[in-house]
Amino acid sequence: MDYAATILAKIPGTSSKLDKGLKRLLESLQAYMPAEQVEQVVRAYEFGATAHSGQTRMSGDPFISHPLAVAQILADMHMDSQAIAAAILHDVIEDTETPIAELAEQFGNEIATLVDGVSKLDQMQFTSRAEAQAESFRKMMLAMIEDIRVILVKLADRLHNMKTMDSMPVDKQARIARETLEIYAPIANRLGINHMKVDLEDLGFRYLYPFRYSVLDRALKRSKGSQRQIVKKISEHFRKAMEQEGIEGEVIGREKHLYSIYKKMAEKKRLLGDIVDVYGFRIIVNDVNTCYQLLGLVHSLYKPMPGRFKDYIAIPRVNGYQSLHTTLFGPKGLPLEVQIRTSEMNRLAEAGVAAHWQYKAEDKSAATPQRRAREWLARLMEIQESGSSEEFLESVKVDLFPDKIYVFTPKGDIMPLPKGATTVDFAYAVHTDIGNRCVAAKIDRNLVPLRTTLQNSQTVEIITARGAKPNPNWVTFVTSAKARSAIRHYMKKMRSSESIDLGKRLLDRSLKDLGSSLRKVGKVRMREALGELGLTDVNELFEQLGLGERLAPLTARFLIGMHDDAQPEAASLVIAGTEGVVVSYAKCCYPIPGDDVMGYLSSGRGVVIHRNSCGNLINFRKQPEKWISVSWEEEIDRDFSSQIQVEAQNKTGLLAEVAAVIADSDSNIEQVSVTDRHEDGSILTFLLQVKDRIHLARIMRNIKKMPNVLRVSRESA
Ligand code: MN
After folding, report:
1. What backbone phi and psi angles, to 5 degrees, belong to 432?
2. The predicted structure's pLDDT at residue 397
């Protein structure tokens, strides 16, 4: 079957170069894929070539040559047909007018989703600021991806772009090369795809440090002529010995890749000669037993260097790599590095996670992409069982199945947050002050409620206001420990400053009752008194008074040196309703301005206001020192909760009617319940917001006027 010719005939503007490329791809695919799957790839090519027709690359080549080459890279890895089709279509959404829905219709959801995933990765820009964030960026990428094939297509895309960068401006080359070294090569390494890692590193090195690259490249080429002879001779020696022992296997002379040599020189500060004059060999055999047998053989041919033997078969490397490594003293003492492994080990070392998407004829499993990635990890775990370090595995697992999300600040910085984090968590992650003063948030430029949960890769902006305070309620929806503790800390601080204010007022009141005042007591006596009380700071005393941990009348008498038990007539503490958390209003009697009230000093909670008629005032007689006289400020501008009970005849719509009357009386209902329901009547309990007694009286009057209402009262019946 010659698909290539028939397809090329249909597509306009084709070239002989393309012709060759497509033929090669189809040949590669036909070698491992059934015809109907190759057919799908062919359809993807037709679609892509038509969509990109007329577009060219910077090199002048027709654009489709790029996706075609990307597909070829994946075909060489024996990837499945969906990954290959997605590779051919990977730039269609970005660079042509094609909507994703059309891809889904033509090629199914899975391929469309893969293409969409690659397009989304393309939109992520790696800014220069982000250099220090490379690690976060890599994690974010992996976290965003539901299907590892997306990253495989992306890696192949990057690899081909790196190979065709010559016609690009130099500054752009450097930027892309840096991104490749910092982001893509480490991802390839993390996923165990060695050949991609090596290629990406060498190309990245070449374009980021062109001068260093060419010096090193030339030096290596110079030494290669003589090297090749030696490698050939030693390889022959190995082969002959294997033949004599009846061991089947393949001997490969290994060339080190440039970037790894460069890194070794930079890290170990070694000269080029020390690193290059090492000869590498890889011997691939059929099974594990043969590996060890062969090891014995090479050790008998050349003397092994002590301490250099590593058994990565018994104890694999953390990314699943398995092999035997040994170093031998070669002819003239030249070090020979030998790796021995099975062909299966070799395949896995090169393919990594991609091995799980390689087309297998017998594979009928409908495993989801996530499951396949898990299987790969599980396999690594299995191989790892005997190994010592689980760090790599842990980090891969966290990257692939993260409990974190990654979002951007408006400046493009990456912020890692726990899954389920809200805009408030983000605000506190940026800075505690931003959190404390945040009033609104924007996600991708749209205003959202503060409790909105964030998603990967959103850009989040926080709007702050001067004087804004955190809302205690936030604690119910924030997920990060930092936000939670910052909110709690702020509330505590607020409470403390409010208690200091209140304590100071309470003490001054009590002193005035005794004909003195804080000013009259003076600093000297105060300092002396603080010492006697074991306190260091006057605010500490005020705070204790404000929180009700110490009693103002007793403290006042102590300060002015009065020790008799005569109780002077107490003047009252004036309540303005703005004291904050240190003054609270009892929920047993719901006091409101205008009511006769008393204050109870509740240890740790400050003053709790009760109505004089409240049943709890019985305690007044038991602990008189804990009760203080309070009165209301003249003008109070806030709402208070108040409870009323309405007894009415049963009638449809009764509740709604009462509620309407309450609303007409400028009040809000906080809660309502039907407490008692009998044959002809019900008792409704309302918790209302009112200004004061006058306001409440008006509401009660209006309700009482209703035809079915029998009784309205503030007290429980
Ligand atoms: Mn591309």
Report:
1. -60, -40
2. 64
The pLDDT assigned to 156 comes to 96
Which active-site residues does the annotation give? Answer: 94-95
DSSP string across 336-400: EEEEEEEHHHHHHHHHGGGGGGB--TT------HHHHHHHHHHHHHHHHTT-S--HHHHHHHHHH
CA 163 – ligand 1 centroid, Å: 12
Distances in Å between the alpha carbon of 553 and those of 174, 435, 537, 546, 617?
77, 40, 19, 12, 19
User: 93 C-alpha vs ligand 1 centroid, how far in Å?
Assistant: 11
Distance 86 CA to ligand 1 centre (A): 11
Burial 395-434 (b: 16+ CB within 10 A, else e): ebbebbebebbbbbeeeeebbbbbeebbbbbbbbbbebee
Q: DSSP H helical segments within 612-653, as ranges?
A: 618-622
CA-wise closest residue to 159 among 210, 198, 112, 116: 198
582 membership: H or E segment, kind and range: none
Read out DSSP for 646-665?
EEEE--TTHHHHHHHHHHHT
DSSP class of residue 678?
Answer: -
Question: For 412, which DSSP code?
Answer: S
Question: pLDDT tens across 309-359, in order?
Answer: 888 888 777 667 789 999 998 888 888 899 999 998 888 878 777 777 666
Residues 6+ apart with CB under 8 A from 242: 248, 249, 251, 294, 297
Cα gap 69→57, rounded to integer Å: 13
In the chain the domains, ranked by start, together with CATH numbers, are 3-208 (1.10.3210.10), 221-355 (3.30.460.10), 368-487 (3.10.20.30), 489-632 (no CATH), 640-714 (3.30.70.260)
- Token duo for residue 694: 């006058």
Residues with Cβ within 8 Å of residue 74, at least 6 apart in sequence: 83, 84, 87, 152, 153, 156
**What pLDDT digit, counting tens, does each position of 143-157 carry?**
667 788 888 999 999
Q: Please give the distance, rounded to the nearest whole angstrom, from the Cα atom of residue 45 to the centre of ligand 1.
A: 14
Ligand 1 centre to CA of 84 (Å) is: 13
Q: For residue 386, is pLDDT > 50?
A: no
Neighbours of ion ligand 1 (CB under 5 A): 91, 157
Are 684 and 675 in contact, with CB atoms under 8 Å apart? yes
Residue 151's SS3 state is helix
pTM across the whole model: 0.61
396 CA from centroid of ligand 1 (Å): 26
